[in-house]
Amino acid sequence: MKPEGSTSVAGILAAYDKAADTLAEQLEELSTAAILQPVAGFLPKDPARVLDVGAGSGRDAAWFAGQRHQVWAAEPVDSLRHAARDLHESAAITWLDDGLPNLRQSTALGMTFDLVLLNAVWHHVPPALREASIASLAGLTGPGGRLIMSLREGPSDPARPAFPAAVDKTIAQAEAQQLRLLRRSWVEAVQPENRRSGVIFTWLVFQRE
Ligand SMILES: C[S@@+](CC[C@H](N)C(=O)[O-])C[C@H]1O[C@@H](n2cnc3c(N)ncnc32)[C@H](O)[C@@H]1O
């Protein structure tokens, strides 16, 4: 069946832009602590540099900032990024107009991060762009730092099509970039509507060699 929405990165971002107000509200209703619970033991304890890729409403970025971390929040959709900045004004968060596969703005900072988070974003990255995306994410993860990703599987809004999670392939692509798998687990979605429709998330935790 042909998806209703465009399956190009630009098409998916345009669909996010169109729904930004409603989506930001929905994303803000979720609890970062509950979402990150499966990987809580892998998050930095001391103040650290965190890059949140596909930051959406800024919910997770603000949560990390509240834990004394310095956060860079990369979100390619202007309307979402502006809403996020207004909702979570903080001197501890730097907002970046940036996205996969290249993460140009983040890379141009010339620094690496202790934690790179990709929460509920990977399903929007077309398979042909994933190898390059993992290379960008690995390049931004400092030695000994962690890349934590949640990979969504299950029905998606036709306006914002999802590609298969391809968990095993993603792990292989990461391992080819000196990212060692520390944890693989899966959970039901936290969002009630997604949970009812059978959406699950696989959490992957990698450490940069
Ligand atoms: C389901 S939302 C998740 C937002 C946030 N991470 C959260 O967990 O609440 C997906 C996010 O991925 C972003 N996104 C989609 N394609 C992207 C890409 N190629 N690079 C970076 N972000 C992307 C969207 O703009 C949106 O903010």
Walk me through what this model shows.
The longest helix is centred in the middle third of the chain and has 11 residues, at 130-140. The termini are far apart. Helices cover 34% and strands 25% of the residues. The chain has a single domain (7-208), classed as Rossmann fold (3-Layer(aba) Sandwich). The chain is globular, with a radius of gyration of 16 Å. The protein is α/β, with parallel strands linked by helices. The protein has a 7-stranded mixed β-sheet with strand order 3-2-1-4-5-7-6, with helices on both faces. It is built from 9 helices and 7 strands; from the N terminus they run αααβαβαβαβαβαβαβ. The structure holds S-adenosylmethionine. Residues 9, 12-13, 16, 27, 53-56, 59-60, 75-77, 80, 99-100, 119-121, 124-125 line the site of S-adenosylmethionine.
